[in-house]
Structures are given as structure tokens and as C-alpha cells.
Design goal:
- 2 copies of one chain form a homodimer.
- With 138 residues, chain A is α+β, with helices and mostly antiparallel strands.
- Chain A has 2 domains: 77 residues, Winged helix-like DNA-binding domain superfamily/Winged helix DNA-binding domain (Arc Repressor Mutant, subunit A); 45 residues, no CATH class.
- Chain A has 4 helices and 7 strands.
- In chain A, strands 1-3-2 form a 3-stranded antiparallel sheet.
- The longest helix of chain A is centred in the middle third of the chain and has 13 residues.
- Chain A is globular and about 50 Å long.
- In chain A, 25% of the residues are buried.
- At the A-B interface, strand 6 and strand 7 of A face strand 2, strand 6 and strand 7 of B.
- The structure holds a DNA duplex (25 and 25 nucleotides).
Amino acid sequence: MDRPYREAIEKLKTADLRPTRQRLALSRLLFAEGPRHVTAEALHDQAVEAGVRVSLATVYNTLHQFTRAGLLRQVVVDGSKTYFDTNTIDHHHFYHEVDGRLVDIPGEAVTVAGLPASPPGTEVVRVDVIVRLAGEGK
Amino acid sequence: MDRPYREAIEKLKTADLRPTRQRLALSRLLFAEGPRHVTAEALHDQAVEAGVRVSLATVYNTLHQFTRAGLLRQVVVDGSKTYFDTNTIDHHHFYHEVDGRLVDIPGEAVTVAGLPASPPGTEVVRVDVIVRLAGEGK
DNA sequence: GTGATTGCAAATCTTTTGCACTAAA
DNA sequence: TTTAGTGCAAAAGATTTGCAATCAC
């Protein structure tokens, strides 16, 4: 029983989610390497390719549960698809409009100045900065 | 023939769009008063209420044509709905997550500092700042 | 066992499309 | 006329839901 496996189980237990086969597999796909941005569809494809038997509905469920648990963050850049970001630390994004690719911009680097106070009775949940890019890029 | 009517016709002609009954009606609903944020559904409802006979498909077409012509701007804040903004000048948004309401933040007020250079071969189309709000608000 | 989780297929919601019909130039 | 624009209903895409079967505890 390797280390990442135990960690994955702990992670789920902490989030009050039963470490089922599907959740464990998705968790490992998501958090195995550095930060990534996935859509439900893409993660499902990746899981199937990796030989994990899981339904698309369960992928959707899992992504939302992970988001609720603070393990993922939703990024809205395109009306038609929902992206989930494994980087939950404060940061921003480059968005390549041509191919839909997202690239992180570290949060520490960026400063947003001059924002008006939030309306009375409201609270700022988050400030998102999205830099929309055109052109081929890398 | 009142002034706003002539202006509406001019606006459409300039955009190389035939001033049809539907486009004129939608144009007047959209630009009659100050800046607004609408969804296709909402604009269609408003049109129907106002006694304008227009189909939802035409509302979608028209919103996209107006956007292409630079008369509107698309705002992405929520995966499920597409908002169109009659304010095409550089600016940002408060987004009330509870009720989906959008409020403009003047562009001059805000400064975004520290953004990394855009990746080689790409060009910045636009920088969007979205301040997500929780709580009842006004 | 018992309640949480999963899978499947059907349902939903928003947006787009194909095409015959209508209207603008 | 001639071509652009419209309406309808069907199609498409992403996401959600209902419910019986299955799994974790």
C-alpha cells in the first residue's frame, strides 16, 4: 500500500466522503501531478483510458463533492463548459480562447486596485481576474 | 417619427444589419435606458410582454449579431447562462451569486497590476475582473 | 444489515440549426 | 425580384435526476 494511496484515503475521509473505488481513482487522477484544469468530460475520458470503470454521472457528482469540500475550485470562462481547477489557492487565469486552454497566474503576483466597496449587506467571495488571449500561443 | 427611432435605424445600418421590425424592437428595448445586462430568455420575455412578436431563436441571433457588431458585449460569470451587456466600454463586474444579478464597475477606477506578459504568439483580448458577492445585497 | 454511492437512461436546460416562409431593398 | 431575415420545431451539448442495484461501514 503506497503512500499516495493512504493520502488519498485520508483526503477523502477528512472531507467526509467515503473512499469508494471511483472517488479514489478520480482523486488520484486529479491530484497525482501538479495543478490541472479539467472538465467532467475530459476527466471521464482520462479515467476510462486508464481502465477505471466510472460513469460520467459519477464524475460530475464527484467533481461537485470535491468542490464543496474545498478540494477543487470551479472556473468560469466559457458559457458552455465548466472547468474544475485543482489549484484552490488564490490565483488567476490566462484563457486561450482558441483552444479553451487555461493557464494559472499566481495570485501573489497580481494586485487589483481601485475596486469599489462591495454593496451593503454583501461580502466578497472572490475576485477573479481572467486574461483572455487570442492567437496560437504555444 | 421620433428621434430614438431614427437613431435605432442608423445604428443598425451602420452595423450592416437590415433594420427589421424585430431588430428595431430589440434594439430599442436594449438601449432605451442606461446600461443593462440581459440573457436571451429575459429579453425575449420582455419583448413578448411589450407586445413585440419575436421568436426566441431570433433573439439569440440578434444578440449575437449585435455582439459581432460591437453593440453588445458578452459577459461570462455563470456556466449555465450567457449574459449580454449593453455597456461595451472597458469595465468590470460585481456578480451577486445568490440571484445572478450583475452590476458594473467602471473601468477607469480599477487597476490590475503585476500580470505576467502574455505567452509568446498570443495577444490580450481583454482583462475581465469579476468580484463575486454573497449575501442578500440590495 | 443499513445508509451512502453508483450507473444507467431519461429528463432538463440553454443554445443552435435546418428549412420553408416572409419581408426588406 | 433577389437576398437577408424570421419562426418553428427538431437537434445538439452539457449537466442533472430518479431509481434500482451495489458497496462501505
